[in-house]
Design a protein that fits this description.
mainly alpha
């Protein structure tokens, strides 16, 4: 780390944001007309989120292993930005998959609205990582906190549970 030390609180906040990014990670399909039932759609969308959760956990394990290998020292900012980039890439791929799912039009519309909000917050997160990485890592508030209850309300519990 160049010129400063991060506290465990800062790391915990950064980790909380990482978890929040995943919680914000489900979305909507673009189905028209008759298609899978609401139950099938929710099952498929939740399965996508659960699958991506596994990959995000791998990224977290990789991060932890790097800290352990460095005897408790955090990776450089550049490496941490790279890890966050991997995480965001996983979320982008997940959004694309979930957007491709067919489901009942009314549910898809509600999920699409939520996904639009999530994607706007992800864009802001990307901007902050690029422009103010220290501020991103040190932020105290979870920028995705209001999204998890919305996922649960729509039946996307696996997306909100991570």
């Amino acid at each position: 780390m160049v010129g400063r030390a991060r506290t465990s609180t800062s790391v915990a906040r950064g980790a909380a944001v990482t978890v929040a990014l995943l919680a914000a990670a489900c979305g909507s399909g673009d189905g028209e007309g008759a298609g899978p039932s609401e139950e099938e759609y929710l099952r498929d969308a939740n399965a996508v989120c659960a699958e991506v959760e596994e990959r995000v956990a791998e990224i977290g394990e990789e991060f932890s292993a790097e800290i352990d290998a460095a005897q408790g020292q955090l990776p450089s900012d550049a490496r941490m930005q790279e890890l966050y980039g991997e995480l965001l890439g996983e979320l982008d791929a997940m959004f694309a998959r979930v957007r491709g799912l067919d489901g009942p039009d009314d549910l898809e519309a509600d999920v699409a609205e939520l996904l639009d909000d999530v994607e706007a917050q992800l864009a802001e997160t990307r901007r902050q990582i690029e422009d103010d990485f220290d501020g991103f890592v040190d932020q105290e508030e979870d920028p995705f906190a209001d999204l998890a209850p919305r996922f649960i309300e729509l039946g996307l519990d696996d997306c909100a549970a991570t």
